[in-house]
Model the fold of this input.
Amino acid sequence: MEHVRDLTLLPKAHLHLHFTGSMRPSTLLELADKYGVRLPDALTAGEPPKLRATDERGWFRFQRLYDAARSCLREPDDIRRLVREAAEEDVRDGSGWLEIQVDPTSYAPLLGGMIPAVEIILDAVDAASRETGLGMRVLIAANRMKHPLDARTLARLAVRYADRGVVGFGLSNDERRGMARDFDRAFAIARDGGLLAAPHGGELTGPSSVRDCLDDLHAARIGHGVRAAEDPRLLQRLADRQITCEVCPASNVALGVYERPEDVPLRTLFEAGVPMALGADDPLLFGSRLAAQYEIARRHHGFTDAELAELARQSVRGSAAPDEVQAKLLAGIDDWLTG
Done:
């Protein structure tokens, strides 16, 4: 019988989770209290804030809430706690591998500079991985709203720590601002240093932003990418090259990219053969974690357990996990399906 298997027991990889956005709401309240930060009411209401980022004002509001939350991370202990709790939440949701995304620039002033910030984050990831058994690595992301030279500095830093747990280089924030090609040098530095190129694209703007990520940044993965569904030729290209799209259904609906969960084009991408890795994006603001994204595919898109298992496989194959970790997770997925 279908629809009985527990999705939290399905082994999977989580490839799209932002650093501050991974925080537990209860932790945010405790840290705000500790530092005497007055949070916006939307963050203390006990339920996810009402967001729409499809207009500029909505995006700024989202960004303001994110920044308010980030201002509560001030000491190495706060960073360690955030990372450990993100790992615990992921394990609870069946994740065996997490690639957490961070722009260290925002944390550097409080942590003694850029290099100390990166080292504190990487040490926290090491410790959390040991404590929870979750395979965990870091994607360092540049900010589209900042100067491309800043992105180059970050890319060099990311490459420097490739042997300490940094596996990829991203580009986040409002994709309606700043052309992808402005960041081509930064991505070339990252790719030459052996890092995976995983910029955001195809969320707030249409298929052209996905094409730009492929053409200008030589992306190996696309953060979001859902708007590619509007262009059959682009879908074919993603499928042919097996470019994984990190699709975040709850986030898409919360930000107004799609009206309802059933409008997110999961089926369109899946049936076109585009590999997907479902992700939670910013659970602090969107209110749902990893397993809930698979639940959306099951409940709103009629994905069978065999199809959900295939989505989980795609997440594992799209990850930077070592071969032996991938093999173990893929075997676990088969066991879940036959169990």
About this structure: The longest strand covers residues 135-143. Residues 207 and 228 are 5 Å apart (CA to CA). Strands lie at 12-18, 95-102, 135-143, 166-172, 196-201, 221-224, 244-246. The chain has 15 helices and seven strands.
